[in-house]
């Protein structure tokens, strides 16, 4: 057995919802009181299509009495935002010749002021900035004694020079970093 009472109540409830313009006015216990517009941020509008008269005679929808074709529009904008927008294009105009000339003159004045500031800054500075920087001078340190000869070494050298064919000794010294000198002996 089919329960027709419940389905009949839902039909009556839907009819009440549509007749009140989208407001729920209580359920079976009177607890439901919300609008459909607060539930969903989108607003739904049903607008009948405008169909030419020639098309009305041909279309099968127009033959049925009481039914009109609808088109469905979803809009998520509020009425205040729609009112603030105007459907007309905004008109923009190019600036007049006078404003262009005054703007160019202002730019020229700014450029002159900048050039004068640069010239004043250059004249105040010394020309030492254009010369290449001088190399840093090396710090002079006192030289170390290259060789110290003992009295025995001096006697030996004199003996080498007194031979029939004297032998000469060449001693060279070089700086090697901060550690000291290196010696090179050649006979």
From TrEMBL:
Which residues does the annotated region (Disordered) include?
54-89
Q: In its UniProt record, which GO terms are filed under biological process?
A: iron-sulfur cluster assembly
Q: What is this protein called?
A: YLL027Wp-like protein
**Per the record, what is one GO cellular component?**
mitochondrion
- Which intervals carry biased composition (Low complexity)? 75-89
In which organism is this protein found? Saccharomyces cerevisiae (strain AWRI1631) (Baker's yeast)
Gene Ontology molecular function: 2 iron, 2 sulfur cluster binding
Signal sequence, renumbered to the chain: none
């Amino acid at each position: 057995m089919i329960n027709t009472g419940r389905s009949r109540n839902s039909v009556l409830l839907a009819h009440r919802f549509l007749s009140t313009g989208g407001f729920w006015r209580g359920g079976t216990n009177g607890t439901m009181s919300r609008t459909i517009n607060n539930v969903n941020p989108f607003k739904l509008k049903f607008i009948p299509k405008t169909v030419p008269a020639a098309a009305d005679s041909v279309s099968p929808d127009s033959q049925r009495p009481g039914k009109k074709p609808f088109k469905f529009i979803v809009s998520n904008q509020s009425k205040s935002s729609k009112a603030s927008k105007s459907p007309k294009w905004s008109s923009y105009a190019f600036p007049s010749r006078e404003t262009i000339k005054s703007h160019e003159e202002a730019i020229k004045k700014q450029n002159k002021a900048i050039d004068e500031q640069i010239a004043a800054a250059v004249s105040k500075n010394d020309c030492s900035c254009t010369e290449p920087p001088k190399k840093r001078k090396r710090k002079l340190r006192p030289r170390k004694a290259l060789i110290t000869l003992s009295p025995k070494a001096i006697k030996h050298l004199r003996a080498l020079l007194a031979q029939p064919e004297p032998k000469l000794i060449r001693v060279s010294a070089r700086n090697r970093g901060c550690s000291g000198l290196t010696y090179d002996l050649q006979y």
